[in-house]
Amino acid sequence: MVPPRMFVLIVGAGRVGAAVAQSMLAQGHEVSVLDEDPLSHERLDAGLSTSWEEAGGRFTVGQGIEVEALREAGVSDADVFIASTDGDNTNLVIAQVAQKKFGVGTVIARVMDPARATWFAEQGVRTICPTLEAISMFETALGEVA
Amino acid sequence: MYVVIAGGGKVGWNLARELIEKGHEVTLIEQTRTRYLTIEEELEHAVQYGDSTEMWVLERAGIQRAELVVAVTGDDEDNILICQMAREKYDVQRTIARVNNPRNRELFELLGVSPVVSATDLILRLIEHEVPSFGLVHLLDLHAERLEIVEVEVTAGAPAADSRVADVAMPDGSLIISVLRQGTGFVPKPDTVIEVGDEVLVVLDPGLEAGITSLFATPA
Fold it and tell me: How high is the ipTM of this complex?
């Protein structure tokens, strides 16, 4: 069964954001990426046989905290919003903006700090905390050694 | 009063100093090591080192018992989150946040962070105040209380010009509270005559601005 085509907006094209963008595009979804650094575009091109745009992707230069930049990147039409900049606080604020102002259905924020990730998840912001994942993987690995 | 201030820049440091001088208990949180050490020479135990968006840092500063949290870092995202956590997680009754970029003001409102202070907006108000001539200047807006104080310069030919205060047909819900004439302010009496060039301060319910402007700043 082919999953329905979604419009995914990803803010922050670092290693995580760019990789998720590429895989979502490869799965046939519409993908728009917003990053303040024009050079981050290179990460989107990397490994593709064509450019990111030729492959069907969108790229906008701007700051996620700027509502106008979010609009330009297509937040009003987004089905999925991923906040993956390198700032926990930026991700938490823009995720709430996507939820509350633009009513995006699925909003996920990357938050490195486990305390903030946990508390904001309780407040209704879906968070992914790589630090917690790493801690649990270390614990599992150490459990196997012991 | 116990006050936690996030951000030891010029605003935060001076605020801490002033509040301590007034007898309040203050903890200032600064996240840059060198800046912290500089402030610590003066404020000693009243400043703590750390990232004030981290919960353990806020808790170490005693945010649970704070009566007021002031977020004045240089990052709007940080100021928003600090106030959100202060109110919703730690039940702090009062927060004040600084808006660094006026374009972010709506984000503070959207996420329930108020009141906010923006240096740009304050200076803009001062410019409106200092540069004479156009109608109505907002001096104070109390959104929650639904009350405003405005200033309006009386123009020649306006209905209120050369009238006694008692004779000016003020809309219900508005009141003249002060008159500034040649640099001096005074509280008018009913028989005070309003002169052209006076700056009149009016307290009013929101929405009455147009009526006030037409009384004081529009030629008949």
Answer: 0.89
What is the chain B residue with the closest CA to A115? B55
Distances (CA, A) of B70 to B19, B111, B115: 12, 16, 10
- 3-state SS, residue A11: strand
Say if the Cβ atoms of B75 and A92 lie within 8 Å: no
H or E element that contains A144? helix A130-145
Full set of structural domains in chain B with CATH: 2-118 (3.40.50.720), 132-216 (3.30.70.1450)
pLDDT of residue A2: 60
Q: Which residue of A has its CA nearest to B52?
A: A89
Check if the beta carbon of residue B97 is closer than 8 Å to that of residue B80: yes
Quick one: pLDDT band at residue B133, thresholds 50, 70, 90?
A: low
Query: Where does chain B show beta strands of DSSP type E?
Result: 2-6, 25-30, 47-49, 68-71, 94-99, 116-118, 136-142, 147-153, 174-181, 184-186, 199-204
Buried b (16+ CB within 10 A) or exposed e, A98-108: bbebbebeebb
Give the closest-approach CA distance of B28 to chain A in angstroms: 20
- DSSP code of residue B166: G
Helix (H) or strand (E) holding B14: helix B10-21
Q: In whole angstroms, give the CA distance from residue B177 to residue A52.
A: 63
pLDDT tens, B62-78?
A: 999 999 999 999 999 99
- Where helices occur in B170-217 by DSSP H, the ranges are 209-216
Q: Are A97 and A79 in contact (CB under 8 A)?
A: no
Burial (CB count <10 Å: 0-12, 13-18, 19+), residue B105:
middle
The pLDDT of residue B219 is 65
Q: pLDDT digit string (tens) for A77-134?
A: 999 999 999 999 999 999 999 999 999 999 999 999 999 999 999 999 999 999 999 9
Q: Which domains does chain A have, with CATH numbers?
A: 7-145 (3.40.50.720)
